[in-house]
Design brief:
2 domains, 7-stranded mixed sheet, 6-stranded mixed sheet, 17 helices, binds 1,4-dihydronicotinamide adenine dinucleotide, binds magnesium ion
Length: 506
């Protein structure tokens, strides 16, 4: 499609705020080559609302044949897409962002329906990050440039950046729209075509995004498949024509996917789990730290965040006051119907996560010396009796070596661990196989800077805890992953290939 053609007002899809009806209209479909299509086999699976356990739609059960069709479409489209100038591509990505912004509320409602996350506290902010990412990356087209390299005077040496080709993106269910945008936007602006495999629990909002973007992008440039990991994710990660695999999810699955990419030397970015420490020093502003802890733990998302501050280290002198204030803060959060404007906390995603998180809580309760401090109140409305609601729990008295302090729970459960000295807490914070994020609260600049240097994490915050934002480089150390996302550097490093060109001027 020429830029002139894309500038002509495309046929816009109407905003549909009825999430249930919209879910039905997307039922059983993938988005391949600019069309909503059923799976090749015709098979589907259920999409279930975690708030009601009712089936809200079917999703296409993608398999190797669907991956082949999507990759074929992407391959054909990418050749023309890469011929556009980076700014032309960026302009279309920005235009997608503006269209998505018009649909922001609709997308928030759809992701609310399929994930059970609270509309006001989680789904609307996620829509905002989605459109921010399209806006930011859309403006970065002209930054895809190489360097001239000083060499001999009769030799011109330069580097150029080329698209990788086809990017295979595998995303999880916790913030599907945001995580999609951090992969698809830089991939597209850099001249790649993408095939996304959505999470089986949350295929709808991202499918709608692909369909909306399809009003602006040429067919085949942005394809969306739904399906299970082994049947659909694996053939995508293994496909010989996929030059780059971008994955977000568990460490366990990340290791499998990384091996698939390694088989053919495809590049891979892995955004994996975390067990992120938050240190509260004795001189911290306690009220601010408590606000930051509640936010950092993502209680409004039931703790379903890879960055969740799931290990809180609190100086012994302020420990009890901190726990009391944090409990009061979380008590004030209302659990309820995710669509209700008064609701702060919705449900966890699925029966599997519901059982897994409850099991961790049961283990914590049986751990010697540990005490579960339950916060907020389970909803009493009979309509919500089947929802996957889990009361937030603060565990006190746990050791950093306990199962709960070592493993990613991905639920509304945090461990609050007492410490005596800065040296002790630094060692404990770093004693984890993960290294995604870390936070410290202190008024002492020297301690803050020392911790910023010594904490083994890719994203360190001092006296604040904000969520991941486009423009801030994000990615873990240790088993939390490989590579960065969300920035210009990430786009250049992970979605282009660098070529060195030497021109002999004689
Ligand atoms: P998962 O890592 O298995 O799923 C993430 C994505 O990978 C999904 O799209 C899934 O279909 C796909 N996948 C699964 N197996 C695959 C395979 N063999 N080949 C290719 N793709 C595959 O995560 P899951 O099962 O949803 O959750 C399990 C745990 O993972 C959670 O309890 C949580 O601890 C962690 N997790 C971490 C996330 C993060 O943001 N870091 C996001 C989601 C889950
Ligand atoms: Mg899994």
């Amino acid at each position: 499609m020429s830029l002139a053609a894309s500038a002509q007002s495309p046929q816009r899809l109407n905003v549909n705020l009825d999430a249930a009806a919209l879910a039905q209209s997307l039922s059983g479909k993938n988005y391949v080559n600019g069309q909503l299509v059923g799976s090749v086999s015709g098979k589907t699976f259920d999409v279930v609302s975690p708030a009601t356990r009712q089936v809200v739609a079917k999703a296409a059960f993608g398999e190797a044949a669907d991956v082949d069709a999507a990759v074929k479409a992407a391959k054909a489209a990418q050749k023309e897409w890469a011929k556009l100038t980076p700014r032309e591509r960026g302009r279309m990505v920005s235009e997608c962002g503006r269209l998505l912004e018009l649909h922001a509320e609709e997308l928030a409602r759809l992701v609310c329906l399929e994930t059970g996350k609270a509309l006001r506290t989680e789904c609307r902010p996620e829509s905002k990050v989605l459109t921010d990412a399209f806006e930011m990356f859309g403006g970065l087209g002209s930054e895809i440039k190489g360097e001239t390299v000083p060499h001999k005077s009769d030799m011109l040496v330069m580097t150029i950046r080329e698209p990788v080709g086809i990017v295979g993106a595998i995303i999880p269910w916790n913030v599907p729209m945001m995580l999609l945008s951090l992969k698809v936007c830089p991939a597209l602006v850099a001249g790649n075509a993408v095939v996304v495999k959505s999470a089986e629990e949350a295929p709808l909002a991202v499918l709608r995004i692909a369909q909306l973007c399809g009003q602006i992008l040429p067919p085949g440039v942005f394809n969306m498949l739904s399906g299970m990991g082994p049947e659909c994710g694996a053939p995508l990660a293994q496909h010989k024509d996929v030059g780059k695999v971008s994955f977000t999810g568990s460490v366990e699955t990340g290791k499998i996917v990384y091996k698939y990419a390694a088989e053919r030397m495809a590049t891979a970015t892995m955004e994996l789990g975390g067990k992120s420490p938050m240190i509260i020093m004795q001189d911290a502003d306690l009220d601010r730290a408590v606000d930051g802890a509640a936010n950092g733990m993502r209680f409004t998302r039931c703790g379903q965040s890879c960055t969740a501050a799931s290990r809180m280290f609190v100086h012994e002198s302020i420990h009890d006051a901190f726990v009391e204030k944090l409990k009061a803060k979380v008590d004030a959060m209302k659990m309820g119907d995710p669509f209700d404007e008064a609701t702060d906390i919705g449900t966890v995603i699925s029966p599997g996560q519901f059982e897994k998180v409850k099991n961790y809580i049961a283990i914590g309760e049986k751990t010697a010396g540990a005490k579960a401090v339950r916060c907020s109140t389970l909803p009493s409305d009979a309509k919500l009796k089947d929802g996957f609601y889990i009361q937030p729990v603060l565990f006190v008295g746990l050791d950093n070596n306990s199962k709960l302090a070592r493993e990613e729970i991905f639920g509304p459960v945090t461990c609050i661990i007492k410490f005596k000295t800065y040296a002790d807490v630094l060692a404990a914070a770093n004693d984890s196989e993960y290294g995604l994020a870390a936070t410290i609260w202190t008024k002492d600049l020297k301690t803050a800077m020392d911790a910023a240097h010594k904490l083994e994490a890719g994203f360190v915050q001092v006296n604040q805890n904000v969520v991941v934002q486009p423009g801030l480089s994000y990615g873990g150390f240790k088993q939390s992953g490989i590579g960065k996302e969300a920035t210009l550097e990430a786009m250049l490093e992970h979605f282009t290939k660098k070529k060195t060109v030497l021109i002999n001027l004689n």
